[in-house]
Amino acid sequence: MKQTDGNKLNAESLKRKLEETVTAAMPGILLGDVFPNFEADTTIGKIKFHDFLGDSWGVLFSHPRDFTPVCTTELACAAKVSDQFVKRNVKMIALSIDSVEDHLSWSKDVMAFNPEKAGSPMPFPIIADHNRKLSVQLGMLDPDELDKDGMPLTARCVFVIGPDKKLKLSILYPATTGRNFDELLRVIDSLQLTAQKKVATPVDWKVGDKVMVIPSLSDEEANKLFPAGFTTKEVPSGKKYLRYTQP
Q: So where's the catalytic machinery, residue-wise (predicted)?
């Protein structure tokens, strides 16, 4: 049998095995779950995820493929604003099904996309999930985006993990839609604030804006927690649930 035929059979066998695994797998990971302490090969060597995070917050974000247009713009943006994640005590790590060698080669293209960063090293590691094991475990595969062998690629997933190693937020984008890293920073600001104080952030909230007192707090409790006080917006129902304060 020709080598090419053998490679084709191996690809088909892997595809069948992957389809069976995906069918039997749980639907990813849910909010509040402890994030798996996986081991993986990355552009900085082999890591154990919880050790990599340490006491920091973490953002794991996947992309479909190296050397593709939208993915290049995304990781270039992530690299450009990486100092903003460091400022928030957040460790970043990317993932796709490509090899470490491809990640390292592509990283030069990514950094060249930002003239001010050209020639600089990628400021965060990239996981090589070439066997798709982690992608299946975390529910990150996109059934509508396939490689030349008909194998599913990783979608544009975002996982935000807290210092307690639990999942705090997840967002899933299709391959055709690039992410907004300013929005990701905004939600991290919200997650970190609401982890410390009994407040919630309203629509379009950003740092410095008023926040809302959570409904489970009585007015008496709110007065004790927020010495500056709070204001209540009147609504037709007469219910006093729209309570604003400064964090």
A: 71
